[in-house]
Amino acid sequence: MTVPEAKAPPDPEFVDGIRLVTGIHHQYLFPVAQLLAYYGPPRLENENADSIREGMQAFADALYLGPYDGPPPHIGHRIRIRQGTPWLDYGDGERRLGLPAARSWLDVVEAGGPVRISVVLDPLRAGFGQAAIAEHVLVCHARGAMHWGTTYHV
Prior knowledge:
Blueprint: H1 12-15, E1 18-25, E2 32-39, H2 49-62, E3 66-67, E4 79-82, E5 85-88, E6 97-98, H3 103-110, E7 115-120, H4 130-143, E8 146-151
Parallel strand pairs: 2-7
Antiparallel strand pairs: 1-2, 3-8, 4-5, 5-6, 7-8
């Protein structure tokens, strides 16, 4: 078995702007914990839609996510829960991302359930709420501007 080449994650300043949402998908034989990563509108002077797409692609690459039109690859153990706090190892040797998660999400993950990570590449427009996020995910999925993978808690 060959180990994939390590890919550098985006810089910490960019990662600080990534938004994370968790949920549980119940339409399989077992619940699947979901983690969605997306980026809002440009917030820094040097950001624009293209730079955000590049940063989110680098984030997806560092996680070894695959294209959304294929089966989600297993990406190794990327989720940790310590003292009730979940976090994501996104490939930066020094930093992790804390995850917003309800107790029900933690229960699925701690019981050994899979975590499906989806990364939306295109930035979301300003003035968004839950409905706008859901619509944005559908649009990006249809355009192929998403990547995904499956991980488990260690």
